[in-house]
């Protein structure tokens, strides 16, 4: 199933709007052109979410509700009782036309977490017979069976102004150069009329600077901050897709992709801090100030094509010299880290050098150097890069004498591959970092997902320890391979319950893959850590 947001953390749209845009995407519609005005003002988000205490699903987003410009027709069919339009409903489904309905949350049986005082949107995708229907509840729940009486109860108790069938007709859909030009004009007009005083970020600086405010108000304010960050990160993600589709300038979408990532990082860091009850106020203030500067730079570059900003960033980056440190080592690897560069807000990647030779580039603040040999000294240095292509000077060299301590965990700091990562924070590398507070998570829309460790040589092992997060695999297999193409199954579990799982099993190979086939929850598959022992 296609999803507008592969990363659910970015979803800020109301239930009906996300269902409709997902429906457009599934029908092959070029929805990126409709994102021309997706950029939500942080001032408006601040007013609606933080001051007025609205939740993100009630936030009125900029995205259009009509697509007539490219020939997509929308139809409303009001009713007092659903039974009065049952024949029309069945006829639409027979002709493979999905129908959207509003339902009273108190009568929705598949999701008991909905606010009982509100109405919710559902998509009827097909009928099994005249009285049985399959429902999708985007973004994660699909193919739920409801009989007509159950749907009737849900619809007939909805609010009067929401009693209607809604469907789209794509027969006259067309995206041609004239339509694209019209959308591009709307984009340019939107950019030049866009205003944002960025007052939300000033509020956040004041909030995170005050220890008393955090201690007394964070619990109450957290869900609203979380919603606000979702709206800002998600809207910039969609706006970047629109800028990419119009191909005005290759740099423009990168600006907003980077801002979206930074805001999402702030959102996830705050969630972790709130859960632990510990918060680094200085870290959050630095990140908020950085994002505010990025927002200011980005819209000015779009409005003015401001080369002056590029020159300033180039000069700032030249002053940056990351300082590498040794974070850890295994039998054949060195894990190198460095502090984030705050002088240049747009620095977003790093080049790592071993004995003067480039060994890799990373967007993280650490890098694992493979193929190092004991009893040798290595000279490690780092360069910072920014989104504009500028590079810093080479850092001072870190000299490491490699004499690894005995470590029985063969998976530690090894290279990892996965079918997907939910985001850059719940990423594949987390399962081999030796920590139990970082994790990997697959995309929620993957029914089957996998994660694979490359040991860089053939190993023999006898024990594996898996630490599942709450989103565990109910059914999974462990497989080994010498070439990453031909796999041998060494273990399977069809009744997984998550938690810590110790598996005593003989295995041999260069690769180990955890192949997840059935979810224990509606979300993706998620692991805290994998350890492999001789």
Automatic annotation (TrEMBL):
Q: Which Gene3D superfamilies match?
A: Galactose-binding domain-like, Immunoglobulins
Q: Which Pfam families match?
A: F5_F8_type_C (PF00754)
InterPro entries, per the entry: FA58C, FN3_sf, Galactose-bd-like_sf, Ig-like_fold
**Record domain F5/8 type C: where:** 397-499
Q: What is this protein called?
A: F5/8 type C domain-containing protein
Native source organism of the sequence: Paenibacillus pinisoli
The lineage is: Bacteria, Bacillati, Bacillota, Bacilli, Bacillales
